[in-house]
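User: I'm writing a tutorial on reading structure tokens. Could you give me a worked example: one chain, its sequence, then its tokens, then a sentence or two explaining what the tokens reveal?
Assistant: Sure. Here is the example chain.
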Amino acid sequence: MKINIHAGHNPDGMAACGAVGLIRESTEARSVKDKVVEQLTAMGHTVQDCTCNNGTSQQDVLKRIVAACNSHDVDLDVSIHFNAAASPVPDGQTTGTEVLVYGKTSKAVPWAQKIVDSIAALGYRNRGIKERPGLYVLKHTKAPALLIECCFVDDPDDVALYNADRMAAAIVAGITGQAAETTADAARLAAMSQTEFVEYIGQLAAADMQTSGILASVTAAQSILESGYGKSELALQALNLGGMKAELSGNTWASAWDGRTYIKDTAEQRADGSYYTVTAAFRAYPSISAYLADHSAYLAGAMSGGGLRYAGVVGCRDYRRAFEIIKAGDYASSLDYVDKLCAVVERWNLTRFDSVQESHQNDCIYVNSVADTWTQEEAVKEQKKFAAIGINTVVHKVEIKS
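And here are its predicted structure tokens:
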């Protein structure tokens, strides 16, 4: 897909800076725009940034944006803005998100609906799609165009909900039209920092270890390395964190994979160290949990000839030895694959997840840890940290320091 993206108004301190409230429109629109461009590009889409940062007036800014947009042949023009109320007093009506289009017959309407619904799912009031035929950008761009009013900069409730990463992820989900569960997981990945991703995948790997017998540090390290902390094209487009190809060992293991694939180029390394590129079909998953289940089933059950391809990996308690088994089974062509994975384990101390025991009850995650002690304040902080990355509740069954 080919897309124009631009943030409205001028940067701080220049003409036509846009709405100003508890946050500033021109600043936040650029923050969200940058993240949308990054995420869409990572997914393999062609994105043109048509933002104007040097206009002398509002009209000059609009003309420059339109000229930039019309110089590209694209499928969609997306303008990112923030709203402001006539009165600074919240009244329940001047909150929420909306998407503006030239008219209800515009080809941009289907995208507009998905985007506004996706943003509203973050907790904002859904103000729907509105016709604005008089808006300069919507009127003069050649491609189907829409203008996103992310939320209200002067409403405390909207600003409390606002986070640039999550807003960008919701917009991307609306543009790409991913399925509901896939969209939620992809948006979650896109919004996470490296540290948040490590904690997130580490906890999921610890839960998987209880049934698969594969070290959590091994599962987590492969997911981190292969997916670039959840930001690779394959991770965001197919929720495939481990580079799992469509055809592996003749599919000789019990797998819940539904057969969907994602095609992309990938680099492979020869024995002499040189590289070559091939186009391959990779497995596409409906959720991260589906990926994890298939990944573990593959390592545990894939056959090669008359025996297991990765014999000994289940139950192995030495992460380096487990990686050597995985490399010997030709999981990856990289010559230094084992060392790279070990470096990830050591950088993030992933072995701490190997001793975590988890039980699930009422969608909460209970973590047993005998190594750590916490003050009540520290325990609450940890609970909030995991809730922010999509794990509903984390309760540390530990000694609470007085």
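What the tokens reveal: The CA atoms of residues 180 and 206 lie 26 Å apart. The longest helix spans residues 194-212.
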